[in-house]
Inverse folding.
């Protein structure tokens, strides 16, 4: 079992898995954002696990770790990854921007009042902001759905 959280790269069609992994705090690149040579460099140098739906188009290269998912739904794909890499212990929900893949941090609620819908502002106490794209996050329904589906994962009580 590894000591540090695994890093990932996903193929284009697995964008929902990419989003789910980022919600859970995992450093995940989307293959379609990168040129082929760049993708290979990230996979090898950063020891990323390259997640694919099949290996048909791949000539496996030395040093690249691939993982093939068989499920359709992102939550089920996460369970496949959990079985292989024991991800739950590393989960850090709301630690990473879904768009930029960079860490996000807590933000004072009063400072974002005009940035989110009123209903959201009233309903939540914890908010997070990405320093890169300035996007605001809160633990909404998408997170709740994942918590229901993946009860054993490392959810902290106030999320
Ligand atoms: Zn961002």
């Amino acid at each position: 079992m590894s000591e540090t959280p695994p890093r990932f790269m996903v193929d284009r069609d697995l964008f929902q898995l990419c989003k789910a992994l980022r919600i859970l705090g995992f450093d995940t690149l989307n293959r379609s954002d990168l040129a082929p040579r760049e993708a290979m460099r990230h996979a090898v140098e950063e020891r990323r696990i390259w997640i694919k739906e099949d290996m048909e188009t791949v000539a496996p290269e030395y040093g690249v770790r691939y993982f093939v998912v068989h499920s359709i739904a992102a939550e089920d794909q996460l369970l496949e990854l959990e079985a292989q890499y024991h991800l739950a212990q590393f989960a850090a929900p709301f630690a990473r921007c879904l768009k930029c893949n960079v860490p996000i941090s807590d933000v004072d609620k009063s400072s974002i009042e005009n940035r989110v819908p009123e209903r959201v502002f009233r309903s939540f106490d914890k908010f997070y902001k990405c320093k890169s794209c300035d996007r605001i996050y809160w633990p909404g329904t998408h997170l709740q759905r994942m918590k229901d589906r993946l009860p054993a994962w490392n959810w902290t009580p106030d999320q």
Remarks:
- The first strand starts at residue 8 and ends at 10.
- The chain has five helices and seven strands.
- Residues 104-149 form one domain.
